[in-house]
Predict the structure of GGDEF domain-containing protein.
Amino acid sequence: MLRDLKIHYKFPLVMICFALLSAIVTGGVAYRQATSAIEGAVSNKLISLLESRAASLRRHFGDIENDLLFHVQSDLVTRALKEFSAAWDTLGENKQHYLKTHYVDRDPITIGQEFSLLAAEDGSVYSEVHRRFHSSFLSLIHTTNYYDSFLISAKGDIVYSALKESDFATNVTTNPDTAALGNLFDQLVHSGGRLGQRWIKTGFSDFVSYTPSDRKIAGFVAAPVFDAEAKLLGLLAFQISIEPINAIMQVTAGMGETGETYLVGPDTMMRSDSRFLGNSLLSKSVDTVSVAQALTGFDGVQLVDDYRGVPVLSAYAPIDILGITWVILAEMDEQEVLSPVKQMNVYLSISGIAIATAIATIGFYLATDLSQPIVTMTNVMKRLAMNDLGVNVPVVTRKDEIGQMASALTEFKAFAVERDRLQKELSHMSQHDSLTGLPNRGFAISFLAETIREFTERKTPFAIMLADLDGFKAVNDTLGHDVGDQVLMELSNRFQNLLQGRDIVGRLGGDEFLFVLPECDTTDDCERYAQKILESCQSSFAVPNNEFRISLSVGLARFPKDGTVARNLVRAADEAMYEAKNSGKNQFFWAVTEGVTSNTKSG
């Protein structure tokens, strides 16, 4: 449609379109850069928050582990577990029922306050042991914020519990309600058949809904206890609650209106409560791309749909909690992340439209003033663009930039003419030997490769010759390099006079020459050609104050018999040439590919 429109109208229209396009592109680039910058800043912020929460979690569980290791090696715990286990064995066959009667179901202790009983007044050995140790263990859980503490015998019996819930006086290996403690017991006591060996290792049982604690969410940490003779006495276990973890993960400073950090377990269930859903621990599955990647060991930041189905910018990483891999996430709604960008986009749109309108108006008036003389010079510029260097540049009498354009165009033409001359000269120099004027190695090998491609398609043979002067080093050594250069130039002229058709001869370097002979398609032709090359050296070389003769050794190779690529063909000719040298020089040899080949010696 624009092709037939007059330039008087086309030029202003084009300038207006470009002005609008410029404004749109500028706005688009600014929008993308701003989006990228803000997403990058928020990503870095989320990563920092994630790393901060992860460090706090590691400190929290590190403190628990260190505290546990300290207590299992303390004299208090060692004596307590030893004496509680011994007292347990004195209670007879109904020891579980006996202890629950005296320490859990006993009146007048208020329900839920069973832990306040210092000792039952039953005169038993167990109650005497309980009287001496109970206050210390109560103090331990109150000062460390553990929910409960347990002493578990080497047989799996909970011989002591600070809170005296329904798990007290049961066996963790047989009671299904204490499966979490049972798993820890198997892990630390029976794992690998190492029962009775002294090895202090902490174990962690992931959070579960724990029936003896009215189905409250609970996790457990435990470690083995040994006596002075390295005999396994049992386990010290702490029941930990979720509140300290929630306190770490639900800090909202720096999270904006929609940001949150939370934990997910290997079963994809939440291990901390959501900021938006409340009590979601172990009840909300988070099966997102971020969680899947973190559970396979990766970390990063990406845009995903979160557990609410809301697009969020999600920073994620795996975190090891006492041997169990959780996922820690820091997320913020995409809408909040991009809110500043959207506001800026409105401003950029208004500004861009205003600028584009101003540019288009000014451009219209300038275009109408420039269009007419530009029409005059268009044809000249087109012809110059097509490398028509014979075109005459018209002289424009205007004194403004149009006149300067005409002068510049004249200079441009002069530069183009000179450049064309220099390019041809440089091209020749890059492809020819500076001393002899023959094609150099690069050109000769390239020509050989092109000839191979051509003759491969034609399926016809051709030959090459590699010629090397015999005893040329002695000429350089005795008469000097200047004389040697004169000999090479004279010899090159003789070689060129022997060429026919498309044949070329190139100087590969020093006193070595490559003949590519597309016109030689028979053995007899090639040998006659080689004989002429040898005979061309028979005439003496006259140089100031000297007259001498030299000879050649020539190797021939035929395509495709001796090689189908340039490198192999040249190698075959080179080996034949050295065979000619080793056999007396001043002769030619064919490349040896199928038995003994013919050779001829000149003179």
